[in-house]
Amino acid sequence: MEKFKRFEVSQKVIWGSSVSLAILASIPKLFDAVSTLRDIVINSSITLLFSIFIWHYNIYSLPKFSSQRVGKNLFNGKLFLSVIAGIAIMVVLVVAHQELFQAAQMDAPIMFELRGILINLIVYMFLHLLFQNYQTQQMGVELERTKAVNLGAQYELLKQQVNPHFLFNSLNTLKSMVDVNDPQSSDFILKLSDFYRFTLESRKMDLIPLREEIQILDSYVYLLKARFEDGFELIYEISENQYNTVIPPFTLQLLIENCIKHNIVSLDKPLIINLYSENEFLVIENQIQLKRGVLSTGVGLDNINQRFMHLIHKEIGIDKDETTFKVKIPLIYDDHNN
């Protein structure tokens, strides 16, 4: 994930504007007959040093590295503090120049203060506009990045929902059942039809009730049981009140598919998966009996995690030890219709 870039103001802008202000401040002195070059340089240097200080003060008064948001109101406490700090530093600069150079033709202190306040306001407002523009650009980049992640997750989900390998295996199972005149063939066809009907109906939804997700899972598990027989078992232990929560569609199916993909499923070594609620999570747990030669890319779990981050800004939990593998998905309490 790309982080926000640090907000920066070019040193060319800071020094260029400061020098320009110093030159503008010295113009009236050029038409003053009693002013010397030394007086002009001293007055200009005060403006130059003050402008550079005000630039950096206002820059560092912004949230550090722009990692936080600032208020949209232009006139706020930060401006007041900037003006007070500007008045104080201008007094210091004027007194220091008077003491060091004993300049006779310097402007009155009040003129320097008024000039300082004007410079402060110009720099503050210009910097504020730059920063607001920067934040708008960063939010646009983040929005596009979020859209790209979400579209990628939806595309990956769609590919897994209509997994050609699953369809191929299901049709092979159906063929075997028909060949032996299995009386369950009709039920198998209905469940396969239900599963893909659910796929088409739910693929555009962000969330569906957990009760409906379980119905989709029931059809999926029926198809798996027809294929693996007693080599596969799914045990439910979900609290009744949690059936009214919502969940991204096909989350459970993808997690079951992930278990089957990486673990041995056979009559000699059956794969038992437990699905149960634990506090504010739904847990999918299986014993580890890894297949040889199957490498985990983490794409399936990452896809599910991205969907939860996009929808509720929460991550799924993964607990693993030597014998068991658990995935914890947050329960979502939501009353809106999908």
From TrEMBL:
Record's keyword annotation contains Transmembrane helix: yes
Highest taxon of source: Bacteria
Domain Signal transduction histidine kinase internal region stretches: 153-231
Keyword Kinase tagged: yes
MF annotations from Gene Ontology: phosphorelay sensor kinase activity
Organism: Flavobacterium reichenbachii
Organism placement in taxonomy: Bacteria, Pseudomonadati, Bacteroidota, Flavobacteriia, Flavobacteriales
Protein name according to UniProt: Histidine kinase
Transmembrane spans: 12-28, 40-58, 79-98, 110-131
Keywords (A to Z) from UniProt: Kinase, Membrane, Transferase, Transmembrane, Transmembrane helix
InterPro entries reported for this sequence: Bact_2-comp_sensor_kinase (IPR050640), Sig_transdc_His_kin_internal (IPR010559)
One GO CC annotation: membrane
